[in-house]
Amino acid sequence: MEMVVAVDGPAGSGKGTITKAVAERLGLVYIDTGALYRCITLYMIRNNINLNDIEKIQEMLKNVGIELKKEDNLDKVYLNGEDVSLKIREKAVNELVSQVSHVIEIRENITDLSRKIAKGKNVIMEGRDIGTNVFPNAQIKIYLDATPEERAHRRMKQNEEKGIDIPYKDILENIKFRDNNDKTSKVAPLKQAEDAIYIDSTNMTIDEVTEKIINIIKER
To answer: Residues near 209 by Cβ (< 8 Å), separated by ≥ 6?
Structure first.
């Protein structure tokens, strides 16, 4: 029987960095659902597909192929055969991805894809609604949080390491916008599952949070 560790939390809370580290330490398969939504967003931007054009969105979902691969110990994201690992982190995608993730047809498609990717594996999956919607029966659920200011600093640092130049003020504004969008969404809103363990990582290092989650998993 496969094991699922669900890690939910707001944008920039460290979900990606932490879940990757935990996956490597425990030999779990890491699944970044945010990257899946970012691929859809990039495709929509490139093809001028409007958020309200449900007919075009449904047609698009039939033609979009997304793959998550491990190459040279790096997590790569492919959209219809193209490596878009960096492109999906650019400003245009950042500004639209939250709204894209609220379209019910897209949400349902990515939820199904996430379940297919995880089937038969021991996975750690991060996103907005993993413990509440994608895998409500996950054996372990974590809700990872941090202040908006701290999350903006972290996101800016990540961007700088990837050569992406976005001002702190813009990042903070986007994070606050996404928080409101995600928490008030009518489609799978961001919220802590009743049986999830809450971790505030604002004043914790990556190693401290990683160690805490590893201990939680081992204790189960």
So the answer is: 14, 18, 144, 199, 201
**Which residues 6+ apart lie within 8 Å of 28 measured at CB?**
3, 5, 22, 122, 123, 124
pLDDT tens, per residue, the chain with 220 residues = 579 999 999 988 989 899 999 999 999 999 989 899 999 999 999 999 999 999 999 999 999 999 988 888 788 999 999 999 999 999 899 889 989 998 999 999 999 999 998 999 999 999 989 999 999 999 999 999 999 999 999 989 988 888 888 899 999 999 999 899 889 988 888 999 999 999 999 999 999 999 999 999 998 8
The rounded distance, in Å, linking the Cα atoms of 158 and 17 is 10
Q: Residue 165 is which amino acid?
A: D
Structural contact between residues 18 and 209, judged by C-beta atoms closer than 8 angstroms: yes
98's CB contacts (< 8 A; 6+ apart) are 11, 177, 178, 181, 182
Q: Quickly list DSSP for 145-164.
A: E--HHHHHHHHHHHHHHTT-
Identify the residue whose tokens are 């130049």: 165
